[in-house]
Amino acid sequence: MITGNRKPSRRLLVWALLFCSMTLQASPLNVLLAELAVQQHSELRYTEQRHDALLGVPLHSEGTLRYRAPDYLQKTIERGAAGSFVIEGDQLRVQRGERLHELALDSHPLLMAMATALRATLAGDRAALEAQFTLQLEGGHEDWQLRLRPRQREVARVLFELRIHGSGAKIHRIETEERSGDLTITELLHGHAE
Predict the structure, then answer these.
(1) Domain range for residue 64?
(2) FRET label pair with 149: which of 9, 88, 174, 181, CA 20 to 30 Å apart?
(3) Which of these, 52, 48, 50, 59, lies nearest to 180 by C-alpha position?
(4) How many distinct structural domains can be found in the chain?
(5) Cβ proximity of 132 and 150 under 8 Å
């Protein structure tokens, strides 16, 4: 019989905390993020199709993506509207030809959310992802999809969902679906870095 006066034993509390901790740590999402975090830098070729709901014609670009843990991401567009985007820390630098623009990400919630989605996924930073998005992992280890839906109302007015597809510790495709109906599909080409 259990009475209100008895306190649970320390041993029981320790076991309960240990069990809860192991259950949380071994979740498939935590395992995936830990595997992704192992790679501290990468350079990959990519192709990208942007399906604009108004234009009705897909826009194609390709180039190179570079990542260096924990917060450096560079996208160099070589075909399409040539230029580069560099995110480092909380700064975004956009270069088109000779023109260079710098922006503070914290003053642009949509850009901050997009940067967080990619960098925090690559860094395995679940807390950063959950601060900006609700997360849903689908599939198995060799064919997974991580769905990210924005938490901030201001971001959710524009961005419906990001879907990151991969196998093991490799991301293969990123789909960005906007509320307007626009869809951007970025394919990462492993083994094709320059």
Answers:
(1) 28-189
(2) 88
(3) 52
(4) 1
(5) yes
